[in-house]
Amino acid sequence: MGSESLTTMVAGDSSFMIKTLYTFKLNGVSLNIDTTHVALLLVSVFILVMAVIARIKINKVDASDTPGMFQNAIEIIVEMLGTMVDGIMGKNANKFVNYISTLFLFIIISNISGLFGLRPPTADYGVTLCLGLITFILVQFNGIKKNRIKHFTALFQPIWFLFPINLIGEFAVPLSLSLRLFGNVMSGTVLMGLIYDLLSPFTVAYPAVLHAYFDLFSGCIQAYVFCMLTMVYVNDKIAD
């Protein structure tokens, strides 16, 4: 399949399926650039640009200056995320606040990108699974770093023959995290796609209300839940 119009990225083309935008060959292997790749790129670039602008502006601020709207917004976001991490992780918050904040911003911006005509990257299981695996690696790494051999012997507690169940519980972490996020975002994407496809003559005003719920409200909730569970899993491994 060759290049397709980038208008497949906008809400007017309401199909909820992942679309191939461009196909090229590399060493005889066909590789596709699809809507998920483009949305991921746009979300990542947006976060990087905002972070660079915030860094530059804050470095130029004098203590006697009156904070502008942008600075106030950045400070509110940073304070909110710091409070969230501190409230769950306590004394361990400083070690993980940067990662959790980045994770939260990436997920929430990805989730609400549907408001701007993109197909949310988190509606692709390949994206949410990677996020779940990153959390799984973080949990296991910190568990081994903190507890050494006890990290593995804990799998035999409280009774040795519970080892299979405990092991399954460990590997269920990335699956539960990724499937929960994917399922909730994908369900909203599918429902909005069906509404636009089947009820297109009547989609005048009410889709805005549905977008506000599926993209904004549900997207924020899912971002918080993913980050909260990540902090709980990490804290459980490094708790004294």
How is the secondary structure organized here?
Elements lengths: L19 E7 L2 E6 H26 L8 H21 L3 H20 L12 H23 L2 H4 L9 H36 L7 H33 L2
Antiparallel strand pairs: 1-2
Helix pairs in contact: 1-3, 2-3, 3-7, 4-6, 4-7, 6-7
GO molecular function: hydrolase activity; proton-transporting ATP synthase activity, rotational mechanism
Function: Key component of the proton channel; it plays a direct role in the translocation of protons across the membrane.
Family: Belongs to the ATPase A chain family.
Structural commentary:
One of its GO terms (cellular component) is proton-transporting ATP synthase complex. It comes from Lachnospira eligens. Keywords: ATP synthesis, Cell membrane, CF(0), Hydrogen ion transport, Hydrolase, Ion transport, Membrane, Transmembrane, Transmembrane helix, Transport. It is found in: Cell membrane; Membrane. There is one protein chain. With 240 residues, this protein is mainly alpha-helical. 68% of the residues lie in helices and 5% in strands. It has one domain (64-235). The chain has helices spanning 35-60, 69-89, 93-112, 125-147, 150-153, 163-198, 206-238; strands at residues 20-26, 29-34. Strands 1-2 form a two-stranded antiparallel sheet. A hairpin with a 2-residue loop joins strand 1 and strand 2. The longest helix has 36 residues, at 163-198.
